[in-house]
Amino acid sequence: MRAVIALATALGSTLLGGCLLRLGGERPLRARGWEEEAEVATVTPKVVRALRSPLTSLPQTENRTTANKDGIYQFELDTKCKAIQDNILSSSFKKKRYPEDYYLHIVKKLQNCTWVRRPEESAKFRSELASCCNAVHNFIASQNNTPLGSNMSYEVDSKKTILITEDIFRMLPVSSPLSVYPFKNCAVVGNGGILKNSSCGAEIDRSDFVFRCNLPPTMGSISKDVGNKTNLVTVNPSIIAQKYNKLNEKKTEFVENVAVYGDAFLLLPAFSFRSNTATSFKVYHTLQEFKATQRAIFFHPTYLKNLAQFWRTKGVKAYRLSSGFMITSAAVELCENVKLYGFWPFSKSTEKMPISHHYYDNQLPKPGFHAMPKEYNQILQLHGKGILKLQFGKCESD
């Protein structure tokens, strides 16, 4: 009789344990964020080993699936993602120049971490940027922030000034044309070769506001990867000088070429270097002369100075920030949701396949002019904190 009771008790315990396991497995998993995870994680030898091990995709086995349902594998995954974020943060302040393979290794691991938008982190960082730079009011030179008769200092040639005459004042909008913020969903489209064969065009075009850099091609077969929509595109005066002879001729060709951007703003650094001013003003007057739908506007030099100082405190020390990084910084202030495409400063993919510098050519920037790896490091941090999303590789097809 005792043997029968013992057997029944053991069987009941087994069945109860199975039910509890099943109930635990049916609960929806919620991936804890890095900040939350840091508060609850207990550092054990097993966790330390997990941090050192490579972050790989989850094999579809019965045992691993069960572990995932119990939250064990998710905890390990979140812990590894937190370690990656800490690694990115610590390397941003070191003077050491990391090789390309170091960043590729980090990116490959980061790709396996689920991205989650974090409104609190976004609001905090947006407030930081607003305190230093205030893109809403100061990103674009306007009559409101550039008084008539004042002497404006150049951004880089800071010892030189330009008198804001009536002619210059009339070229400026009364207030920033981007002050009707926040835009809901913004796409910042870089020109990296990683965009080739990405199929990101349709996703980019669905954005409420699309920023582009340096008059990139968007028409023809490439549009399936980069999209057509453009609301603002930066213009490097060197492009105007080299391709259009500073608009002393080839005005018609220039106007025809920029027509592909619809009614977009053409944003120029007229007040960064004194040598940029005449060319930038020529773009403005050419668009006016041909009654083009595009409109030339100018970076405010004080905004760019303050922005450079802001990023310098975070380890980005270069002769000048890249256009893409400037635009990304402004977009974080001006947009609720920011997604980056075509940001890839490396010569190869994480699978070691060659990638051209631009999706339309392989012309490299001047050595030492920009701090591309340091900038990308900051972008990876913003991605990891859920402040913006960085598109790695191909987009999902519709």
From TrEMBL:
GO terms for molecular function: alpha-N-acetylneuraminate alpha-2,8-sialyltransferase activity. The keyword Glycoprotein applies. CDD domains: GT29_ST8SIA6. GO terms for cellular component: Golgi membrane. The keyword Signal does not apply. Keywords: Disulfide bond, Glycoprotein, Glycosyltransferase, Golgi apparatus, Membrane, Signal-anchor, Transferase, Transmembrane, Transmembrane helix. It is a single-pass type II membrane protein. One of its GO terms (biological process) is carbohydrate biosynthetic process. Its main location: Golgi. It is found in: Golgi apparatus membrane. Gene3D superfamilies: Glycosyl transferase family 29. InterPro entries: Glyco_trans_29 (IPR001675), Glycosyltr_29_Sialyltrsf (IPR050943), GT29-like_sf (IPR038578). It comes from the Eukaryota. Belongs to the glycosyltransferase 29 family. This is ST8 alpha-N-acetyl-neuraminide alpha-2,8-sialyltransferase 6. The gene is ST8SIA6.
